[in-house]
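Section 4.2 – Deliverable D4.2 (structural model, holo form)

The reporting period included a commitment to supply a predicted holo structure for the target in complex with S-adenosylmethionine. Inputs used:
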Amino acid sequence: MNLIKNEKFSLGKHTFPFTISPDYFQPNKTTELFVEAMTGRLKSPFLDMGAGLFPLSAWALFENNDVKVYASEKVPEQRELGKQNIENLASLYPCKNILKRFDSYCGSWFDSLPSPNVLTYATISGDLSGIANDIGRHMGWYNDNVPAGGLDGTEVIIPFLERVRPYLSEGGSVFFPIAIGFSDHEKIMDCAKKYFRKLEKRIGKINEKTKLRDDKKFIIPPDKLPGLTDLKSTYTFLKNLKNQNSRTFWEGQIYEATDPII
Ligand SMILES: C[S@@+](CC[C@H](N)C(=O)[O-])C[C@H]1O[C@@H](n2cnc3c(N)ncnc32)[C@H](O)[C@@H]1O
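Output (structure tokens):
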């Protein structure tokens, strides 16, 4: 595995050493959006589902010294590198008691977790693959080692939303992503509405004070655009990409779901 050691990896207000790999999923803009959405809303225990190399787990361990963190990731190699990242932080910051506050699982969705009769979570992030396969590969975010979101970007998020409710503590929150333009976001929202009474857009909302749209649109690099446009006939939702002057953007939103319908 190729490794890139980053001594100054920053998430939210924290900077810590973190190792990533070009062979696996590298934390990106969506990781940052999750941090922004969960800042001030993180409760213990926290479940980081689709943890990749564990950046959100690391952030949560720094954000609050009392939070217990559990990470779950499907790809064994990613889980292994993620564990090494957390163990490294534990040895560098012994006063944070990181290893006493952290555990991880390897498996698909909730398959490897203890039964919800044993453990439920007050905050759950579902930063699971939410971008359609061909688009994820074309953008260079997903290589063959990491599962992307299936034909329409919903095939990993929807089963997560269908299965998450028993694992949520009373009064708890689930955070999930919507990639407008890169997934069938309406299908994901219809599913979320079926299972939760309350859905609040935490990132990508209209800022009520200024009436301006929060800038959570990300430029599509010009060299990626031609190939994407070729995919248009397969992916009708690519029509949701926004154009402004000569640039084209996709949009990242994060929702907080509460009050599950049992
Ligand atoms: C968008 S990446 C996010 C990773 C990490 N949260 C980050 O910010 O870097 C999605 C992750 O979900 C994982 N994943 C995909 N399908 C999964 C499943 N069925 N169960 C658990 N994890 C899954 C992928 O392997 C990948 O690491």
